[in-house]
Amino acid sequence: MSNVIQIVRFRVKEGVEAAAFQAVNERFQREVAPTLPGLLRREATVAEDGEWLLVLRYDSMENARGGAQRDVSALAQQFMSMIDMATMSASFYTLVSE
């Protein structure tokens, strides 16, 4: 199996407090991320202008592409409801060296 890197970029919805989203992200990191099949690592970052960048490493493309659809928990729904979906993009890359 080859490792896959998923890059996700987005902004939170207008009116969502940065601290509130960060708290939900921290819960997601602790409670949801460890349960996602094939997820090896998840890093969440935020730029000074408010854009978020997630870097997720999976064990396979199948797991990477199916990750978001597998979790339908209330916490995952809360996390997604705070994101401005018009700003969201996701890309997948197969790791060739490290």
What does this structure look like?
- The radius of gyration is 13 Å and the shape is globular.
- The protein is of the alpha+beta class and 98 residues long.
- The protein contains 3 helices and 4 strands; from the N terminus they run βαββααβ.
- The chain has a 4-stranded antiparallel beta sheet with strand order 2-3-1-4.
- The chain has a single domain (4-94), classed as 2-Layer Sandwich (Alpha-Beta Plaits), CATH 3.30.70.100.
What layout of secondary structure does this protein have?
Layout: E1 4-12, H1 18-32, E2 39-46, E3 52-58, H2 61-70, H3 74-81, E4 83-94
Antiparallel strand pairs: 1-3, 1-4, 2-3
Strand content: 35-45%
Overall body shape? globular
Total helical segments: 3
Terminal Cα span: 15 Å
Low-confidence stretches: none
Give the biggest sheet.
4 strands, antiparallel
- Sequence of secondary-structure elements: EHEEHHE
Rg? 13 Å
Overall CATH architecture: 2-Layer Sandwich
CATH C-level class is Alpha Beta
Number of domains: 1
Kindly state the percentage of residues in helix: 25-40%
The spatial strand order of the largest sheet comes to 2-3-1-4
Count of distinct strands: 4
Kindly name the structural category: alpha+beta
Which whole number gives the mean pLDDT? 92
